[in-house]
Inverse folding.
């Protein structure tokens, strides 16, 4: 195992919605340093190895008492193992890693667009934007395929954040995609070009890039990508992201080291 991993103790795990859980562990050093958009690599403690590669997760919350929260969806082997963790268990964590969101201090409006488990870094970002000397007005748009997957954010988001939810099955909030929620409901309420921050499935990010690239005026556009990662710090070269360029050769950057947050207008989405 990489020497930069540290062993931490799980202090809590709770179901947040459907197959989505919040894992809490104590990591004082990380909690003090975390910036929104950064992530950690997480794996079983040595000797308990049911998965070989560590898995990347964004930080959801960094609490003043040194506890850190990860919000995750149980999808495959690694995340199902995580869902079975209990307080007192030990896990190996490596972080904070990656390039965070830049807090656009000059923007009077911020629009945060989250799809599925793209929610965690944007929840943390909302809280940090509100700490700016002149905080922007914040709209957080959060979409899921099914309403049963929508995570209740009461007690997590500061009250100043205007939260909009969407579900494709229409059982919670706006019926449709989060990008439709943006264009139909939220964009008409904006009085100044917003700083746009996003994280979610690649198809959603690409759709958002199309919408913003279509002549809409924005202050900036930052997108956090969730590529598959093996090492998390620039060694394996497994997380390349192609950037848009006029050059004949393709141009790549590493999601883990140069990202996961990129200028959304620079990524080659398709
Ligand atoms: C920077 C970063 C931050 C992330 N933050 C979060 C987070 O906060 N919460 C969260 O739940 N997930 C997050 N992810 C995705 C998470 O890492 C994957 O869901 C996880 O690796 C799946 O592991 P597994 O062993 O359960 O699934 P696997 O058995 O490896 O795969 C199960 C399913 O998940 C898909 N999958 C695997 N890895 C990824 C991936 N990296 N992105 C998207 N789909 C994947 C597979 O295609 C497959 O369909 C993040 C990924 C990155 C790169
Ligand atoms: S995950 Fe290994 S280089 Fe990015």
């Amino acid at each position: 195992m990489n020497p930069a991993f540290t062993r931490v103790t799980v202090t809590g795990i709770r179901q947040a919605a459907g197959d989505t859980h919040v894992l809490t562990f104590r990591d004082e050093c990380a909690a003090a340093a975390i910036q929104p958009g950064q992530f950690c690599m997480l794996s079983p403690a040595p000797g308990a190895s049911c998965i070989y590669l560590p898995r990347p997760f964004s930080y959801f919350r960094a609490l003043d008492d040194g506890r850190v929260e990860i919000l995750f969806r149980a999808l495959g082997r690694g995340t199902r193992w995580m869902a079975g963790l209990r307080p007192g268990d030990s896990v190996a964590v490596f972080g904070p890693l990656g390039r965070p969101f830049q807090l656009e201090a000059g923007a009077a409006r911020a629009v945060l667009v989250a799809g599925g488990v793209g929610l965690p870094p944007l929840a943390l970002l909302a809280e940090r934007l509100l700490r700016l000397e002149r905080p922007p007005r914040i709209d957080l748009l959060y979409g899921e395929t099914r309403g049963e997957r929508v995570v209740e954010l009461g007690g997590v988001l500061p009250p100043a954040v205007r939260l909009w939810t969407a579900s494709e099955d229409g059982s919670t909030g706006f019926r449709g995609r989060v990008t439709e929620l943006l264009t139909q409901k939220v964009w008409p309420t904006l009085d100044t070009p917003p700083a746009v921050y996003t994280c979610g499935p690649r198809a959603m990010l690409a759709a958002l890039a199309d919408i913003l690239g279509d002549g809409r005026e924005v202050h900036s556009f930052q997108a956090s990508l969730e590529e598959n990662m093996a090492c998390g710090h620039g060694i394996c070269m497994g997380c390349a992201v192609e950037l848009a360029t006029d050059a004949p050769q393709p141009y790549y950057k590493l999601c883990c080291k140069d990202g996961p947050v990129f200028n959304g207008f620079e990524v080659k989405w398709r």
Q: What stands out?
A: The mean pLDDT is 94. Residues 229-232, 234-239, 254-256 surround FE2/S2 (inorganic) cluster (ligand 2) (CB under 6 Å). The radius of gyration is 18 Å. Residues 202-213 form the longest helix (12 residues).
